Automatic annotation (TrEMBL):
Domain ALOG, first and last residues per copy: 25-152
Region (Disordered): 1-33, 140-161
Similarity comment text for this entry: Belongs to the plant homeotic and developmental regulators ALOG protein family.
GO MF, one example: DNA binding
Biased composition (Polar residues): 13-26
Protein name, as recorded: PROTEIN G1-LIKE2
Length: 161
């Protein structure tokens, strides 16, 4: 998926509301995300059955996804810290944009219940996930990542399978 400057790509959930004409895109993305997560659980040693999946597995999954991230988040010691468009490369890590993670959690949360999970046990609805996402958002806001990177992020989950 190569978009140039689509604005709301990272926010999959709101995008879905704004464009009722293309609900299938949200649905297929949700299915892909759900499969990716299922695969992730299967690859754990030992594999984690969905019935035993809890919020710490979800948090580990989110951290695991960072290795596929494309959003530069400057660390506090970086000379470009606070600059949205650094004039030169630096060694700060690439991360998943928080907006992408937030939209991903929204899709997985829905998928979990569509696949037989109950709202009471939904690990994606756990308060610790919201806390984690808030921390990521604040951290990335301080590092002033380039917002246009978000668009590339949205494709991450599709490409890495
Ligand atoms: Zn940097």
């Amino acid at each position: 998926m190569s978009r140039e400057r689509g604005k709301d790509v990272a926010e999959g959930s709101s995008e879905n509301q704004q464009q009722p004409a293309t609900p299938s895109r949200y649905e297929s993305q949700k299915r892909r995300d759900w499969n990716t997560f299922g695969q992730y659980l299967k690859n754990q040693r030992p594999p984690v059955p969905l019935s035993q999946c809890n919020s710490s597995h979800v948090l580990e999954f989110l951290r695991y996804l960072d290795q596929f991230g494309k959003t530069k988040v400057h660390l506090q010691g970086c000379m470009f810290y606070g600059q949205p468009e650094p004039p030169a490369p630096c060694t700060c890590p690439l991360r998943q944009a928080w907006g992408s993670l937030d939209a991903l959690i929204g899709r997985l949360r829905a998928a979990y219940e569509e696949n037989g999970g109950t709202p009471e046990t939904n690990p994606f609805a756990n308060a610790s996930i919201r806390v984690y996402l808030r921390e990521v958002r604040d951290y990335q806001a301080k590092g002033k990542r380039d917002p246009t990177q978000e668009e590339k992020e949205a494709a991450d989950f599709e490409q890495k399978e």
